[in-house]
Amino acid sequence: MQRILSILSMLIILIAANACNSLTGSSNYQAPDVPKELQSIEERGNFLARHYWDKSDFADRSMISDKQDIEQAIVNYLEILRRVDTLLADSSLNALLGRMEKHGRQEVYSYFQESLKRHLYEPNSQLRSDALYLQVATFVSRDQHSDIAEKSRAKAIAAVINKNKPGHLASDFHIRLTNQDTTTLRQLQGTPMLLMFYDPDCHTCQEIMETLKTSAAISKAVDGKKLQIVMIYPGTNIDIWNKHQTSIPSTWINGMNPNSELREKELYDLRGFPTLYLLDAHQRVLLKNTDPSAVEQVVINGEI
Asked: Which residues are bridge partners to 288 per DSSP?
């Protein structure tokens, strides 16, 4: 919590500096003036979430003329949304999109759509947030300006994001094990699971595997049968899969999807590799598109 407040505090300072720059004409983005009576970081952060774009004229193309400037403004805004209440973040984002749709220039609206997708939806973005981008995709799928193709893409993305959400039962699929036996995800229920979709040739996947191997908390949970790690290669190249089997610890389950149903039916959101899901003993999703540190914290806290 302290780290979140520290980052939010720094953002507020940066935005205040931006407000000063806008007065001298050195910035296309104009920050709102935070009332002095709002003293706490939370109050000021909430104010910025509600009023961040109040001084912006989305009908003016010059707003996006300086790409570096507007991109920084968007990044700062998204950082704030990640640190305020979920309902407030969703409300703020929908209000922004609504203003641009109703009063904005199409060029500006399109630019913001692309930027939000890049920051919130691309798998390697540090600002990636399925929850926030779901708001964007849902809005675009229903707006008055996007064409049929754009709306169709937005609907498809929303459908993918809505699959295997936290609290929902993970989708079942077939698994071929290293001994050539075939099972299903559902047959592995009974023990909490870290489900990792990977590509054997993926360097980042190897790094994540090493992080999992060296985590004392995760290793202890695996050894104590409190957690199982299931590695799934969704591809079809059996030779590559066999070649890398020795890199998977014998205490983990290593499998591939023999009938390509993961890809063909788009059962999971596999935008990039690795993709990690933490499931409870009944295979309900606890964490989606997560990382080893978040999993480790759940294990340490005894939440599985």
From this structure: 277
Residue labelled with tokens 């996006």: 64
d(CA 191, CA 283): 9
Phi and psi at 279, nearest 5°, equal -115, 150
Distances (CA, A) of 120 to 33, 51, 106, 179, 243: 27, 20, 21, 40, 35
Half-sphere exposure (Cβ direction) of 50: Cα atoms closer than 13 Å: 12
Q: Which of 208, 52, 78, 53 is nearest to 131 (CA)?
A: 78
- Strand-strand pairing, 174-177 and 253-256: antiparallel
Query: Residue 100, SS3?
Result: helix
| Bond preceding residue 274 cis, omega within 30 of 0 | yes
**Gap between the Cα atoms of 48 and 55, Å rounded:** 12
In tens, the pLDDT along 160-203 reads 999 999 999 999 999 999 999 999 999 999 999 999 999 999 99
User: Is 284 a residue whose pLDDT tops 70?
Assistant: yes
Write the CA distances from 265 to 77, 101, 172, 287, integer angstroms: 35, 33, 11, 22
Q: Dihedral of CA 11/14/16/19: which sign?
A: negative
- How far apart CA 263 and CA 197 sit, in angstroms, is 12
How many angstroms separate the CA atoms of 304 and 251, rounded? 19
Lowest mean pLDDT among 39-43, 155-159, 166-170: 39-43
Cα–Cα distance measured from residue 166 to residue 85, given in angstroms and rounded to the nearest whole number? 18
Flag whether the pTM goes above 0.85. no
Quote the distance between the C-alpha of residue 59 and its chain's center. Answer: 30
**What confidence category does residue 285 fall into, taking pLDDT thresholds of 50, 70 and 90?**
very high
Coil, helix or strand at residue 126:
coil
* Two tokens, residue 152: 């169709």
Tokens representing residue 280 in the block: 């409870």
